[in-house]
Backbone:
């Protein structure tokens, strides 16, 4: 069991930012990564469709014998993780916007959250903001259009710069000092955001926390892979974006097309 892979899925290539955190913390673990890029973006879809797609991805990963599933997508987590946990007996790790650390540390009493429409309108997101919004202004923005640009490898494009400029404007006006990245595609935009934002604004995402949580749940369940043989990593996409995904992963990681 402990040698079985960790399954990871996202609506597309963004969850590779989470895969990197997991790989860096748990290098012994075997992994299978699924990019449902054919159906990206999830962020504009309704809850029912997001649940349906999350079940499809889960079924595929279970067929590959995964011991745990990391839902490396804020939109799928906030809309579908409860259903997944109710339906399946293996552990699921989810990812949510890191509102708590931002709300606890803000000095200006204003934080920004950039996420998809699906995340920002979910019940789970509202529950979290209700808990931490006391006396704090939370400036939410839907990052519409960002995910398709990342999926197409246009991270460094003029369109991306313009979108980020537009979405950051109300946050700057509200004098935020923390920007929460609530979508796993967004960590790839950190260099652009650093250029765009004043230095006093800290950018946070949940990648490292998810990797730590994965480790802790594996430990608790006696599923941590203690074998030191070289770990195996498989990456699949169901769209024509192999090159984009390979460039995000960096050298040495091949991606295969699979029509799932
Ligand atoms: N990467 C995803 C997230 O974390 C989903 C983006 C999308 O498909 O809209 O929310």
Residues:
């Amino acid at each position: 069991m402990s040698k079985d892979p960790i399954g990871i899925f996202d609506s597309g290539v963004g969850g590779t930012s989470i895969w990197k955190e997991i790989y860096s913390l748990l290098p012994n673990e075997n992994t299978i990564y699924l990019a449902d890029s054919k159906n990206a973006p999830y962020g504009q879809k309704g809850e029912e469709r997001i649940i349906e797609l999350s079940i499809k991805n889960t079924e595929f990963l279970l067929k590959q014998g995964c011991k745990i599933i990391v839902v490396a997508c804020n939109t799928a987590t906030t809309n579908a993780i409860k259903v997944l946990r109710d339906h399946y007996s293996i552990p699921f790790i989810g990812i949510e916007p890191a509102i708590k650390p931002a709300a606890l540390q803000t000095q200006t009493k204003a934080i920004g959250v950039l996420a998809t429409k699906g995340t920002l309108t979910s019940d789970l997101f509202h529950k979290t903001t209700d808990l931490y919004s006391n006396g704090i202004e939370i400036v939410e923005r839907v990052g519409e259009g960002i995910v398709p640009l990342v999926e197409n490898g246009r991270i460094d494009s003029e369109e991306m710069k313009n979108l980020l400029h537009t979405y950051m404007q109300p946050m700057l006006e509200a004098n935020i000092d923390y920007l929460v990245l609530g979508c796993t595609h967004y960590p790839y935009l950190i260099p652009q955001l650093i250029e765009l934002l004043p230095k006093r604004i800290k950018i946070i995402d949940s990648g490292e926390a998810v990797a730590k949580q994965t480790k802790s749940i594996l430990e608790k369940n006696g599923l941590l892979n203690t074998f030191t043989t070289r770990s195996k990593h498989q990456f699949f996409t169901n769209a024509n974006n192999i090159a984009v995904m390979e460039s995000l992963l960096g050298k040495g990681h091949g991606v295969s097309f699979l029509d799932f």
In short: The chain has a mean pLDDT of 96.
